[in-house]
Amino acid sequence: MIVLKNVTCGYQDFPVLQDISLQIESGEFCALLGPNGAGKSTLLYTIMGYLKPSKGFISIFGKEIASVKHSWLAKQLAFVPQETRSEFDHTVQETVLMGRYPYLGLLQSYSSEDFDTVDSVLEELKLLELKHRWLSEISGGEKQRVLIARALVQQTPFILLDESLSQLDINYQIEIMKLLKAIHSKENKTVLIVSHNLNLAANYAERLIFLKEGKILAAGKPELLMQKETLKELFTIELDIMQNPHSGRPNIIYP
Q1: 176 dihedral zone (left: phi>0; alpha: psi -120 to 50; beta)
Q2: pLDDT tens-digit map of 31-52
Q3: E strand spans, 114-235
Q4: Residue 51 and residue 39: Cα distance in Å, rounded?
Q5: Where does residue 246 rank: exposed (0-12), middle (13-18), buried (19+ CB within 10 A)?
Q6: Quick check: pTM over 0.70?
Q7: CA–CA separation, 128 vs 17, rounded Å?
């Protein structure tokens, strides 16, 4: 499990997160939601160890991340960014192979096992035929599946995704959420995704975490959090709620 205890963190002298205490159980599928500037991405970066808290601590399986080696952390947490940027283009295979880096020894090259692992995941995500294509040649939905494949070959118990659906068309958003749900169910991976889509999050996640102004406003099952009063406090707008006839989960109706 991941535990945050009284975490305050930000950039230079500006604290974005304030006194955050949160526990994410192993095997959970959680969605982190809130207005722009609430600190959602900062929270992920802090869990990943990219940012160091000025107060409090974060632990994974009881080990404080401030005291563990980067190689150990890389075998626990896989990160899927909103998009990937590089000065150089890479093939799908090269990109996914990067997820095997935590398992390489000093001056060690990728092994046949690494390539087999990559091929297996590419096949599972229906990307095998794109293996030798350049990232610049494939669609946004395909590219996002490639980044998820890179996270999967890292073989970590936790996958964190930072607004990975925000620039995709709705058909790709649904496809990726279904894929994440299937991975979560099949492999019992813990998923924490930052999302702007309340309905998608409520339909697929087991627990929602509402963040506002750097603080946890509420956390719990969608049925408990998708309430008019709570959503108004989070987004300062009146929203009506209805039950989704397909998922049975509460969904919002836009005014």
Answers
A1: alpha
A2: 999 999 999 999 999 999 999 9
A3: 158-162, 190-194, 207-212, 215-220
A4: 12
A5: exposed
A6: yes
A7: 40
